[in-house]
Amino acid sequence: xxxxxxxxxxxxxxxxxxxxxxxxxxxxxxxxxxxxxxxxxxxxxxxxxxxxxxxxxxxxxxxxxxxxxxxxxxxxxxxxxxxxxxxxxxxxxxxxxxxxxxxxxxxxxxxxxxxxxxxxxxxxxxxxxxxxxxxxxxxxxxxxxxxxxxxxxxxxxxxxxxxxxxxxxxxxxxxxxxxxxxxxxxxxxxxxxxxxxxxxxxxxxxxxxxxxxxxxxxxxxxxxxxxxxxxxxxxxxxxxxxxxxxxxxxxxxxxxxxxxxxxxxxxxxxxxxxxxxxxxxxxxxxxxxxxxxxxxxxxxxxxxxxxxxxxxxxxxxxxxxxxxxxxxxxxxxxxxxxxxxxxxxxxxxxxxxxxxxxxxxxxxxxxxxxxxxxxxxxxxxxxxxxxxxxxxxxxxxxxxxxxxxxxxxxxxxxxxxxxxxxxxxxxxxxxxxxxxxxxxxxxxxxxxxxxxxxxxxxxxxxxxxxx
Amino acid sequence: xxxxxxxxxxxxxxxxxxxxxxxxxxxxxxxxxxxxxxxxxxxxxxxxxxxxxxxxxxxxxxxxxxxxxxxxxxxxxxxxxxxxxxxxxxxxxxxxxxxxxxxxxxxxxxxxxxxxxxxxxxxxxxxxxxxxxxxxxxxxxxxxxxxxxxxxxxxxxxxxxxxxxxxxxxxxxxxxxxxxxxxxxxxxxxxxxxxxxxxxxxxxxxxxxxxxxxxxxxxxxxxxxxxxxxxxxxxxxxxxxxxxxxxxxxxxxxxxxxxxxxxxxxxxxxxxxxxxxxxxxxxxxxxxxxxxxxxxxxxxxxxxxxxxxxxxxxxxxxxxxxxxxxxxxxxxxxx
Lengths: 467, 335
What we know:
The complex is a heterodimer of chains A (467) and B (335). Chain A is of the alpha+beta class. Helix content of chain A is 31%, strand content 20%. Chain A contains 13 helices and 19 strands. Chain A has helices at residues 94-97, 101-113, 126-133, 137-146, 164-173, 181-190, 208-215, 247-265, 278-289, 299-313, 358-373, 379-383, 447-462; strands spanning 10-16, 23-24, 29-34, 39-43, 48-53, 60-62, 68-72, 76-80, 268-276, 320-322, 325-327, 334-336, 338-339, 345-346, 349-350, 387-391, 410-414, 418-424, 427-441. In chain A, strands 9, 12, 15, 16, 17, 18 and 19 form a seven-stranded mixed sheet that branches. Chain A has a four-stranded antiparallel sheet with strand order 4-3-1-6. In chain A, strands 2-5-7-8 form a four-stranded antiparallel sheet. In chain A, helix 6 (181-190) packs parallel to helix 7 (208-215). The N and C termini of chain B lie far apart (42 Å). In chain B, helix 11 (223-236) crosses helix 15 (323-334). In chain B, 39% of the residues lie in helices and 20% in strands. In chain B, helix 13 links the parallel strand 13 and strand 14. Chains A and B meet through helix 6 of A and loops of B.
């Protein structure tokens, strides 16, 4: 019984316009219902065949009552004639009465949940109805087992139904971490990201011991089983238990350890070049003119993209130095150094940055910085940068020679974009320039390779339209 | 080399839960002439469980008073005596029968101070036997302490050691408000050395009876010996259990419970009462409220089966928390 007005609580069925066995199409009038105001035709919401009429003409039933069962191509049973009670506000004509998707969902829910013979179901929780309506028991069980919230899953099946594949995908993507409260607290104190930790508790729950194991794991990251990004090393953290007074200090310890390790073990060499950004900036301004403010690019996006593409073109700068060898992943995951307000920094990865479009990279950068500063990074992001960029331009410095983030083999630094006098084609001009630097691991390659990398960055920034 | 022989002091110091309860009543009767004991068969029979054996001869029928078989009547009389200035100890034979007196306890004893605007205190102490394990069947064996623990206006105690059997009564009598003391039937014959109370003795704190790091076993009264036995067996498996004896069921000592969970990060609540809406539920809720961020495993509960306690021995055993159940729950938390 559809709600044919906000104040309608019940309606009486005047007559059926169809009989069991009749084939009906979406939009076809199937019944006449008398409300307190007028008699109204009720439309069917889906194609199918009338399987069973559940309410006799002359009967008054509450809104939400299932009026009939619709056979859907002989496969599933879908009741027709009920509606999402109370949701369809001010719907006073037939055309609108039953055509929303929610309506048919609600009707199915009444059948599927079995909790209501739909009588007086006016108060049935909308969420429950929607969830139940779009799913089969199998899918609901799968969702339960995988801890997937069905309401948050977008259904790809017929009429928006959530399919098994949807749940499986959501289970992979949802990032819902099953961890005990103590494990979460411990992770927070140790500065460990829960993502990527294998839980040893029931159903894979991460417990405190798993966090501590991850935190006190070998400081030299394990050799990746394969060059695949998924197998990239964990972020190294201090072997010493950090002082208990918090996150920031734990992070300081981790940085101290990591940077010491880097300077002890990695023979750095440094290169620097100043790049004319006139073309890049001009192109960016043109681009920005055409897009909403929220989607506008900043120079950092171009600089990062250039660093990423250059790392693909000069793979000697990409990857990890592990156990005396250079592991070169196929992908470029660009670590972006983000300074944190409470001190310290993190360098999470923009995955596959070399293949992202500039707008996508810009959006990814915004998202990454926001999450880095609110402590919501994913393990994969903190774990697998293959080359890191530090951009201290907004701090006002002209150049930065960074310390490589082990076990990576290179770190790219950008200073401030400054208008400088530049000789161009024999004339002196004032153009926006940036000093790009490269800190590279001499074990993995020599200065000539590093020079090729910086030259590639330079060339890419001269052709921003190709980025 | 033979073990050293017991000294005579040690020999005489060996005592039982029943004897300690009796000693406490005797001491109270001697210490304060306002104190008297009343209840069914507490006089010439010596109490249904023998707690008051010999007291009639020692103190006479004025102070050791047999009552008619009417819980509502004699508990009401005890409350009246308390209001009138006496310090009655009312014995109810079993907790099941106390339901007949629940109106007196809940609607009078627990409320009169409030209803009178603070003018009428009810310093009564009500003792009763609780719990199963002795094949007394479903009308004599339940553990309803959790119901009493939900009543504002009364204090609820559950001694599980000889020390508490001996020393809880005096502070209970000194309390200006009603105190209900639950004596688990399985404990009366428990024996051991008499242990003097510490200087800081009170009837509001829970006690850690055994210190451990891996899991908190939270219990009271008749479950305590089982839990200590389970803790011993768990220690052999390498699981170090912290045993918390609640002692006071109302108020609950949430700080000690949370402190234990903060050490172990895992909790098993053992309560012979029924699980649904029971004392174990309240404790689990308090753990969630006070120590949520300490929890490294879901709280486990080991409770009495939700059936009337059966009469046949094997079924009764099966209906009660057993040592193996406690151990299994502890293992689940430690995983």
